[in-house]
Write a structure and sequence with these properties.
The protein is an alpha/beta fold. 52% of the residues lie in helices and 13% in strands. The protein is built from 13 helices and nine strands.
Length: 286
Amino acid sequence: MGYIGLGKMGLALSRALIADGHAVCGYDIDPARMRMLKEAGGQPAASAKEVAENSDITFSILLKPEHIEENTLGPKGIAAAKKKGLIHVEMSTMYPSWQAELAGKLRAQGIEMLDAPISGSHPKVDNRTISIMVGGRKEVFDRVHPILKPLAVSVDYTGPSGTGATMKVVTNLFVNSALALLCETILLGERCGLSHETMMACLSKGSVKGAMLDQTAPRIMARDFAPRGAVEIFVKDMGMAIKLAKEKGFDLQIVKAARGMFMRAEAAGWAKDDATRVIEVYEGKA
């Protein structure tokens, strides 16, 4: 196995693959992340090309489209390895049509690609409660599924190339907007004199109960902004949802309003902080 992009998610996934008994070769531009891979039992590589030369299946999870293009189609990318039968699993959150186009470009060079974004932060990788949505050719999905299945609570095939990315945009539309709504819920309760204990007791028994409440509300209440899902990622992902909806003929009013709050948090210098810090925008601190 090969992994390109050893940030919080990529390194966590590499460690999980190693724990499952796979030999993992990895690459990142940050030497410190490469050392962490080596300490976990992986083999650092000098480039994505070298990763592909030593792998049957490569994975990538990167922040920007240009980073993915450089490491797939660039002179030191996986395509340059000319590895026969290589499968690439692209796990970044990117625009659906862009992912489908990349899959076509790689297929033209003999590489089958799946777009397989993840729902869940890096702590969920560690306890294997992420979900993975996978678009691409079904026969390719079937080959990779046994490797992905132990990493996640669910691995779902969504259809042709780009549909995994679409499902991730749709998922994030709800999760990101719900976080802003949860901040409003908690702050109003606080300002009206309700205790956190009372709110959690009542909300968890009614229609609001669920994973978002259980996992996120305690962090909002504690003003715990340790990065899990960063503000800047929420701004990017909600922008994709707004663009996709517009292409399909309608406007996302709630998402647009919520994104405006995260944009204010980003402008306040909190781009790298956890998105729960948006509550401080509501509190007038930005």
